[in-house]
Design goal:
There is one protein chain. The chain contains 20 helices and 21 strands. Helix 1 packs across helix 7, helix 3 runs parallel beside helix 5 and helix 16 packs parallel to helix 17. Strands 3-2-4-5-7-6-12 form a 7-stranded mixed sheet, sandwiched between helices. Strands 9-11-10-13-14 form a 5-stranded mixed sheet, sandwiched between helices. Strand 20, helix 19 and strand 21 form a beta-alpha-beta unit. The protein has 565 residues and is α/β, with parallel strands linked by helices. It folds into 3 domains: 220 residues, Rossmann fold, CATH 3.40.50; 119 residues, Rossmann fold; 174 residues, Rossmann fold (3-Layer(aba) Sandwich). Bound molecules: iron/sulfur cluster (SF4). Iron/sulfur cluster binds next to helix 20.
């Protein structure tokens, strides 16, 4: 036994290693990135000394990562895939179909949701995907559970032959706690043993059978969830007024208020104790446990992080006369993260006076501080690129009018070019959308359309849009901001190096004379603006690659070089 202080992401990563992981794949995305960073560090440090070290590699996108993991599972070995919540949209095709394959080696899809959108474009809740694909979903509430659930999730995946989602949220992924590691439970990797091919050939005749099997499995999965220690039920028949369901880290906020809540219940319901509770750490819904709560209490309060998933699900399980309180009824907010104060209010407790005075003091102290929205680093290469682009756009607007110039952008540090003072871009929707939207705008009649995209995002999902532009000969100017790294998530390597972009783009069919490679720096701003205008005037597909290394990447590279000396 030993104690380690770990992030939620790290605790899970260590759990997968100890549970017999053979390979891990992922695409960086906050707050999931640290899972893969932990596994890659382990791989890099140990692969030369130990040939069985689990492989851990970044991939071009979440779809390719999941498909690689499926190959591991088909070979009988355990695999994990990591991504942020919106990454599961990208991987949705293999994910939904994987649920119909007879998973052989355990397969965990670790998805980190970002309630409050700290670094995301939406508050998507991955539990809906688990329900959609009818697969189990584990939701650790603590770092210890993140470690232990890795073992359980692999076992469930192999026992029921299904992929399993491990849902994280930002507060768990990015906070540290002591994790007790029982080294006697460390397990070796599965031996190579291919799956039955009939279980993996999703042609209609076989897929129909697999789908029937999947439906038939649902009762077993519900029975598993009902008896799982992740879903503890504590009944109190004396309290018929209320029962409480928590899930994920909602339980932590409930437990934080528990001493005050016990005192409150003692005052209001002398001798009757606190209401019955059910914690849901594993889906599908533990239906029998929920029914038992409803037999006792006429009202159920649901404390869950994310969207009102359980509230929606419960309507299919509870009798009509049971009232459900939660996010739909305004007892908890529909948007943003939960916190102990919000849960306190939902429990009917007075605001915490100590917290109130501390919060008020903090508010006073912050009242006169200027706002500090995120910004591009001072000296960031994107600043020079955007100054050139803004200058080009101003000339084109003067010539053709503002409705004839569109600048679509994408996800990455360069999204910060949308803020003042640059105000350089007009849209940010999802990974890779910039080029497709520029194509659409062009086909809608806009004369000059730009798609601004980073090197990694281009390889993630911009490349297919460029193929569409080439195939349809649509006039579009792609501005590829090559800073040589995946900067926004902490400087992970881009899948291809700078020198590989030109031949790649040429190979896709862009005319060589319309692939322009520019060094972006203050001295070249004006000349680069002229090139952007020239290429915007070209009535075909052009790609302007603006190259300069990210400052953070430069700093990391230098530090590594010094350490290597
Ligand atoms: S991390 Fe790199 S790319 Fe991102 S803003 Fe800073 S310098 Fe620019």
């Amino acid at each position: 036994m030993k104690d380690m202080v770990l992030l939620g992401d790290e605790a899970f990563a260590l759990g997968t290693l100890h549970a017999g992981l053979s390979a891990a794949f992922g695409y960086p995305g906050t707050p999931s990135t640290e899972i893969m960073e932990y596994l890659i560090d382990n791989y890099e440090r140990n692969r030369e000394s130990c040939e069985n070290t689990p492989v851990a590699q970044w991939c071009s996108n979440e779809k390719t990562a999941l498909e690689a993991a499926l190959g591991v599972s088909f070979s009988g070995r355990r695999a994990v895939v990591t991504m942020k919540h919106v990454g599961l949209n990208v991987a949705a095709d293999p994910f939904m179909n994987a649920s119909l394959c007879g998973i052989k080696g355990g397969l965990i899809i670790a998805v980190a949701d970002d309630p409050s959108m700290h670094s995301s474009q939406g508050e998507q809740d991955s539990r809906f995907y688990a329900d959609f694909a009818m697969v189990p979903c584990f939701e650790p509430a603590t770092q210890q559970e993140a470690y232990e659930m890795a073992f359980e999730a692999f076992n469930v995946s192999e026992k029921y032959n299904v992929p399993v989602i491990m849902r994280f949220v930002t507060r768990l992924s990015h906070s540290r706690a002591v994790v007790n590691v029982d080294e006697s439970k460390i397990r070796s990797q599965n031996k190579l043993e291919k799956a039955d091919r009939k279980e993996w050939m999703l042609v209609p005749a076989l897929a129909r059978k697999n789908y029937e099997k999947m439906i038939a499995k649902q009762d077993e999965l519900i029975a598993y969830a009902t008896s799982s220690s992740s879903n503890p039920l504590v009944l109190n028949k004396k309290r018929t007024d209320l029962a409480i369901i928590t899930s994920g880290i909602g339980r932590n906020y409930f437990l934080e208020n528990l001493p005050d809540y016990k005192a409150h219940c003692e005052k209001m319901f002398a001798g009757l104790g606190i209401p019955s509770t059910l914690h849901i750490g594993t889906l599908p819904l533990p239906v029998d446990s929920i029914k038992k709560l409803a037999e006792i209490a006429k009202t159920i309060l649901i404390i869950e992080e994310g969207q009102p998933f359980l509230e929606k699900q419960l309507s299919s399980v509870l009798p009509q006369y049971t009232q459900v309180l939660g996010k739909f009824t305004g007892h908890l907010p529909r948007t943003g993260e939960l916190n102990p104060d919000l849960v306190r209010k939902a429990l009917g407790l007075e605001p915490n006076k100590t917290m109130l005075s501390e919060t008020a003091g903090l508010k006073d102290a912050c009242a006169n501080l200027p706002g500090r929205p995120p910004q591009l680093c001072k000296g960031c290469p994107h600043i020079d690129s955007y100054i050139s682009l803004n200058s080009a756009v101003a000339s084109l607007v003067e010539k053709a009018g503002k409705d004839n110039v569109v600048v679509n952008a994408d996800i990455g540090c360069y999204a910060l070019g949308g803020a003042a003072p640059l105000n350089a871009i007009e849209t940010i929707v999802c990974m890779g959308a910039s080029i497709g939207m520029a194509r659409g705008a062009s086909q809608a009649g806009v004369k000059y359309t730009f798609g601004v995209i980073g090197d990694s995002t281009f390889l993630h999902s911009g490349i297919t849009n460029l193929v569409d532009c080439v195939a349809t000969k649509t006039p579009v100017t792609v501005v590829l901001l090559d800073n040589t790294i995946v900067a926004m998530t902490g400087c992970q390597p881009t899948m291809l190096s700078s020198s590989q972009f030109e031949p790649l783009i040429k190979g896709l069919g862009v005319e060589p004379e319309h692939i322009r490679i520019l060094a972006t720096n203050p001295a070249n701003r004006e000349a680069n603006a002229k090139v952007l205008i020239e290429e915007a005037e070209y009535r075909g597909v052009s790609v302007v690659i603006m190259v300069r290394e990210c400052l953070e990447a430069f700093r990391i590279r230098n530090k590594k070089a010094k350490n290597d000396i």
